[in-house]
User: What shape does this take?
Amino acid sequence: MQTLLKRYVDYLSAERGFSPCTIRNYSQDLMGNKSEGKVLGFLQFLQIINVKTLKDVTRFTMREYIGYLMEEGVSRRSISRKVSSVRSLYRYLMREGYIEENPVSLTTSPKLDKRLPNCLSEGEINRLLSAPSADTPQGIRDMAILELIYASGLRLSEVVSLDLDQINLVTGQIKVLGKGSKERVVLIGEMAINALKKYLESARPHLLSTKMDRSALFINRFGNRLSERSIQNMLGNMGQKAGIDKRIYPHLLRHTFATHMLDGGADLRVVQELLGHSSLSTTQIYTHVTQTQAKKVYLAAHPMARNENSNAK
Assistant: This one.
């Protein structure tokens, strides 16, 4: 099993073009995650129930595994992700001819409760963008990162992997290599362009070193490409500095970008293209967010709506 898993991980990286973070999540779903304590990964579970090879797995095995996860108190969303990881593994095994029938193709995950993505208000995003210091190279860099993510909706992995030659500050366009190695062009506005110019002209030169990654757009104080963890930590710190009572993370800025675009009248398919969603249904979740926000504004602003609410109370 270990040999097959290694080949599968190599396939995810080389042929599917998945980010290191995504590959790590798939691997942990199969092998177990230390942060989840005693909860077994799929392959660990197979050993416990004495299933010797991946060929011996049946749809009943998957039902047993899902039942085990539910008994351990794993959330429905996490169970769904783990089942998806197992499905991906078995699609690979079918592709490689290791198995003739896929025992998990018809396995259904627990039904998820619909959750609307969180986003920041315009006031909160303005406070966040004002949080970095403009007096240090790191602060100028952090400002450029914040402006870029909010202006473009880029994923964290896409921001980290950006090279200098992917940025065109004259046209305000960025070539991005997204999920599955799919290339797309995203747009950025004047604020992000100016923030990036300032970073490139007055901050990045101060972060250079003999060991620097000369192709990387965003680098740390040692001159190396900035890591995903560094950006995550920076966002959390900036959120606290801005006094925002929410956990600030990269995908929250991506959600905020999409929601504010739709609030401003952008076409859904344009937002889909900018986000790099392969399916329009993935982007449509943001229309529910804007409708929810519109209802809140209506109930707060319309006199008859307020009267009805107060009477209802």
In short: Residues 139 and 271 are 29 Å apart (CA to CA). Confidence is low (pLDDT under 50) at residues 308-313.
